[in-house]
């Protein structure tokens, strides 16, 4: 168990409450879904995750905002959302009310999943958030405590090799890497323009994201050590032919910013 409400917890919680207040992209509930759209949005078949989630226990980890939770609930899953932000969780409840579906919300730190009790989840869905804490090993150990035998763990995270790099790093010929490739190296950069609708640089008073690099070797070896087997890996990149060098669109085609993993857990397989 991790002692929560340290400075890292407070920074992340305060930032996400401010993002909710600003109606940033990842705080906006998806209110135009039906079952077909929900299935396409989640892309379970593409990832090799069993597509029939009806009645299955799904944990949306650090995934508040009324997006993935709503999609899973529409497909009949038994959904729990665990998030650091009370505002984000309110968006999940709002989306559930909109669709007339039920879900459970729990506020907490992904470094301590003990508030979830003894529930064993068939699928843990963990979108971009791993880099908000220094030590990924703590998170992966917690996930191993709450996932069912044979369950799947979807993880989307920063591409470790490009963590902290953005289109602002364009030097006229390429994108310059300047951050050290070491675990827990701290980095910060402005939110991307597409995070906000009305104020491209972000409303005043919202602090920049504080992120920590997670090396690929630590991610992979820790999850193997916890009893997970890798079943899918994809690089998430942009496809914008003719994009202007130095733009976000161009950058995402040169240096894929994100990775998607799917892992399957087997009890007793930990090494």
Structure description:
With 271 residues, this protein is of the alpha/beta class. The protein is built from eight helices and nine strands. The protein has helices at residues 7-21, 35-42, 44-47, 68-74, 86-99, 136-146, 216-225, 248-254, and strands spanning 57-61, 78-83, 104-107, 121-126, 147-158, 186-188, 210-212, 228-236, 258-265. The strands form two sheets. The chain has a seven-stranded mixed β-sheet with strand order 3-2-1-4-5-9-8, sandwiched between helices. The longest helix is centred in the N-terminal third of the chain and has 15 residues, at 7-21. The protein is globular and about 55 Å long. The chain starts with 6 loop residues before the first helix and ends in a 6-residue tail after the last strand.
Q: What structural class do you assign from the helix and strand content? A: alpha/beta
Radius of gyration: 18 Å
> What does the largest sheet look like?
7 strands, mixed
- Order of helical and strand elements: HHHEHEHEEHEEEHEHE
Task: Describe the global form.
Answer: globular
CATH superfamily: Vaccinia Virus protein VP39
Protein name: Class I SAM-dependent methyltransferase
InterPro entries: Methyltransf_11, SAM-dependent_MTases_sf
Organism: Nonomuraea monospora
Keywords: Methyltransferase, Transferase
